[in-house]
């Protein structure tokens, strides 16, 4: 099983300047809980925005640069190679960025999305279009904005039909 995990705004925004535009502490806690112990696959820019390998996860970085190396991480050059490098994990996660999500949508079995109920016009990275005819919603939790969360949001899991 291959899972895409992302926080996506109403206008499909993911971030700006290799960073999130919003801060939702509940999303970050959930992300950590779900991905702990798994292989996480991401593009080089996404990795560099994190600044380090994520603790208690196997980090796989996709980079076109054949000389790119990061201590403590697996570096590959294609999504297919990343999936192969994660073959021991029954549920590796795709963490982005936008181009990696686009490639992975064809291969993913699960979409685990945090839907941020707000549009961000200044974003420079976006989630690809989803053909919802290919997916079925299997779980949803809705939350209202509060003192820690500036926006309404939902945790939604989809399974490929």
TrEMBL record:
InterPro entries: DHFR, DHFR-like_dom_sf, DHFR_dom. Pathway: Cofactor biosynthesis; tetrahydrofolate biosynthesis; 5,6,7,8-tetrahydrofolate from 7,8-dihydrofolate: step 1/1. One of its GO terms (molecular function) is dihydrofolate reductase activity. Its EC number is 1.5.1.3. CDD domains: DHFR. Keywords: NADP, One-carbon metabolism, Oxidoreductase. It catalyses: (6S)-5,6,7,8-tetrahydrofolate + NADP(+) = 7,8-dihydrofolate + NADPH + H(+). It is an enzyme of class 1 (oxidoreductase). Residues 1-160 form the DHFR domain. PROSITE patterns: DHFR_2. Key enzyme in folate metabolism. Catalyzes an essential reaction for de novo glycine and purine synthesis, and for DNA precursor synthesis. Belongs to the dihydrofolate reductase family. This is Dihydrofolate reductase. It comes from Lutimonas vermicola.
């Amino acid at each position: 099983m291959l899972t895409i995990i992302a926080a996506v705004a109403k206008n499909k925004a993911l971030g700006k300047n290799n960073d999130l535009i919003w801060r939702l502490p509940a999303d970050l806690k959930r992300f950590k809980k779900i991905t702990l112990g798994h292989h996480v696959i991401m593009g080089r820019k996404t990795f560099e925005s994190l600044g380090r390998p994520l603790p208690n996860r196997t980090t796989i970085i996709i980079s076109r640069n054949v000389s790119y190396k990061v201590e403590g991480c697996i570096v590959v050059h294609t999504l297919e190679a990343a999936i192969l490098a994660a073959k021991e994990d029954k549920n590796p996660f795709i963490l982005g960025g936008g181009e990696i999500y686009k490639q992975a949508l064809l291969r993913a079995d699960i979409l685990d999305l945090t839907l941020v109920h707000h549009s961000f016009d200044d974003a420079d990275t976006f989630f690809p279009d989803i053909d919802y005819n290919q997916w079925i919603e299997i779980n949803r939790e809705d939350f209202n904005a509060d003192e820690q969360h500036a926006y309404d949001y939902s945790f939604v899991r989809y399974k490929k039909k």
